[in-house]
UniProtKB/TrEMBL annotation:
Record-given protein name: GNAT family N-acetyltransferase
Keywords on record: Transferase
Gene3D superfamilies per record: 3.40.630.30
Top-level taxon: Bacteria
InterPro entries cross-referenced by the UniProt entry: Acetyltransferase_Butenolide, Acyl_CoA_acyltransferase, GNAT_dom
One Pfam family of this chain: Acetyltransf_1
GO MF term list: acyltransferase activity, transferring groups other than amino-acyl groups
Keyword flag Transferase: yes
Stored PROSITE patterns: GNAT
Start and end residues of each N-acetyltransferase domain: 9-148
Amino acid sequence: MILATHAGYEVDDDPARLDLDVITDFLLTTYWSKHRSRETVERAVSRSFGVGLYGPDGEQVGFARVVGDATTFAWLADVFVLPEHRGKGLARVLVNAVLEHPEHAGVERWMLATLDAHGVYAPLGFGPIESLDRFMIRSGPNAVAAIR
């Protein structure tokens, strides 16, 4: 279903519209996903709640996915807008559409990790973890040390 529109762009949660080539090709260039295989990225996308951002021509130009139980916890991951479509407020439109999706109504806690997009997420209510010492992480053998 179309979740939002902005300047000729639309956000849609229809999994049939997702272009795995666009998603994988871009994610394999990012600091957080460049170490993964195409198969790993495709598997992660298929096991998540994915939302696409589409340009005026209908081509996919962005993506975000959610991992969680849609009730108490949700992890926002792999958010991107292709470089040639940035600077139009599209990332914020995309993320807001995900946060406001009926599937996620009432989620108690949203989390994400970013090195460089705090300006996108802060206006949508995200902030630093206050009690970092309460959180723990277990990295598997395929985790990359640079992003652990």
